[in-house]
Write a structure and sequence with these properties.
alpha+beta, HIT family, subunit A, HIT-like, nucleotide binding, FHIT
Length: 198
């Protein structure tokens, strides 16, 4: 490969005092530089659509239909209501990111019954209370993407996102590195939220 004239060679890059000796060589990733890499290979499952339903039909092919049949710890279900349940997102934007999902396989908000609307609202309010009790969230993004065109990952089964936010949580990591750092295992987050559910 021909080196670009505006791109420094490995010999031209000064060794950073902040990188330990054993990490300064980055074979296979290009010109060595002073940056450490945080790899997030679990995100590839989301990017490649792993576990995404191939059909819009209800049943075991829909993860939101299947999850309630599993134990809470296996499904990452935080709380079960009368007409809906709260479950952690496998690909969270922030720690504690969960979804409120009606049990019934329905795509559009206008198709929910009054009882389902009430339970989704109640569980959303309770989710906010539990997340605040566990992690002192400063705010929340709450909403649902209706249809694939609006960004719904699983458009056939409605789900409302509850994403906790903190001052400064959009730092250089997602902005520059397109990486979110999650300091806790999802199973631990589920246990904390379930214990604090009002």
């Amino acid at each position: 490969m021909t080196e670009r004239p505006d791109h420094p060679s490995a010999a031209d890059v000064p060794e950073s005092p902040y990188v330990p000796e054993e990490l300064s060589q980055q074979d296979g990733v290009g010109v060595p530089d002073p940056f450490l890499r945080l790899w997030t290979p679990h995100r590839m499952a989301y990017i490649e659509g792993e576990n995404k339903p191939t059909s819009s039909e209800a049943g075991s092919g829909c993860p939101f239909c299947r999850l309630p049949s599993l134990p809470d710890t296996d499904a990452l279900i935080v709380h079960r209501g009368e007409a809906a349940y709260a479950v952690l997102n496998l690909y969270p934007y922030n720690p504690g990111h969960l979804m409120v999902v009606p049990y019934r396989h329905v795509a559009d908000y206008t198709e929910l019954t009054d009882a389902e609307v009430a339970d989704v609202a109640t569980l959303t309010r309770q989710a906010m209370q539990a997340i605040r009790a566990v992690s002192a969230a400063h705010g929340f993004n709450i909403g649902m993407n209706q249809g694939e065109i609006a960004g719904a990952g699983i458009a056939a089964h409605l789900h409302q996102h509850v994403v906790p936010r903190w001052s400064g949580d959009m730092n250089f990591m997602p902005t520059i590195a397109h990486t979110k750092v999650l300091p806790q295992l999802l199973s631990d987050t589920r246990a904390l939220l379930a214990k604090s559910w009002p």
